[in-house]
Amino acid sequence: MKAIGLLDYLPIDNERSLFDIDIPKPIAKGNDLLIEVKAISINPVDVKVRAPKEKKEESPKVLGWDASGVVVAAGEECKIFKTGDEVYYSGSITRPGTYSEYHLVDERVVGNKPKSLTHGESAALPLTSITAWEALFERLRIDPLKKEENELKTILIIGGSGGVGSIAIQLAKWAGLHVIATASRPETKSWAKDLGADETIDHHQSFKQQLKTINTAEVDFILCLNNTDQHWNSMADVVKPQGKICSIVENDKPLDLNVLKSKSVTFVWEFMFTRSMYNTADMIEQHLLLNDIGELIDAGILRTTMNKRFNPINAENIRKAHRLIESGSTIGKIVIENFE
């Protein structure tokens, strides 16, 4: 089957950084589904894993996590899906990825594809939707059913126009929160507002001063999707006493937790691969939340965050998508559709 792999971790402008290969078609066993991949999307984690480093693979490594496709086979222990089902998912970072015509994935982290979306539109959603959902509703403990209570609370989403921010804004508004998102360019501000952000501020400037201009002294929740190190002290400065901060971006230097102590602030990480990486007892929660996302999409409450698409799925187009993400200027998600 066709796939895209790497042997050396090279700059993306090098044609050998990602190249077209042919590998054996895998066989579904146990809890695994074999998916015929129709569309994939590219995430910052793809770029981070592929980034240049002193390492060499003995055989081609296949990256990629987001996918939408059709079940063509199911392992003997599968109970949720059957052949012919249309699905979307983000897989596991510890297994071969979705840059391949056929892909194995544990059915417990797979959702039913939204009926109202194409495969491309669906492929934009899984990793970012799981991340945003877990961050908001599991890590920050926001209850989406308590909308009246949430209307009195404010969340600051740092990095509102990226992939996770684009779905987090929508989910936070659905939950009833007042949403302030960071965006620094006219087009990113417009994108965030169009998705439902009540206000935007510039993450390159003082949070505290900008919040004062919109009559907001402090915020109840902060979701950090960009440069935890850079924004650490600013977050501590504007979070309310007994507030909560969640970040998805690892720190490069030690974080001073003492700046949170006097306010009794909760800080928590979100990593959407935790469940699949550690085979946790609650892996099924990702199946359930992806189904919830799909229902919200089909009800017109949420929308796809796809903003750019390429065709077909090959090394050239994947390198192009990686290059765009490395530029740091992408808005929403980049999708690549169809093997030829």
Automatic annotation (TrEMBL):
Residues 17-336 form the Enoyl reductase (ER) domain. InterPro entries: ADH-like_N (IPR013154), ADH_Zn_typ-1 (IPR014182), ER (IPR020843), GroES-like_sf (IPR011032), NAD(P)-bd_dom_sf (IPR036291), YIM1/Zinc_Alcohol_DH_Fams (IPR050700). Transmembrane segments: none annotated. It holds the Pfam family ADH_zinc_N_2. Keywords: Metal-binding, Oxidoreductase, Zinc. SMART domains: PKS_ER. Belongs to the zinc-containing alcohol dehydrogenase family. Quinone oxidoreductase subfamily. This is Zinc-type alcohol dehydrogenase-like protein. It comes from Ornithinibacillus xuwenensis.
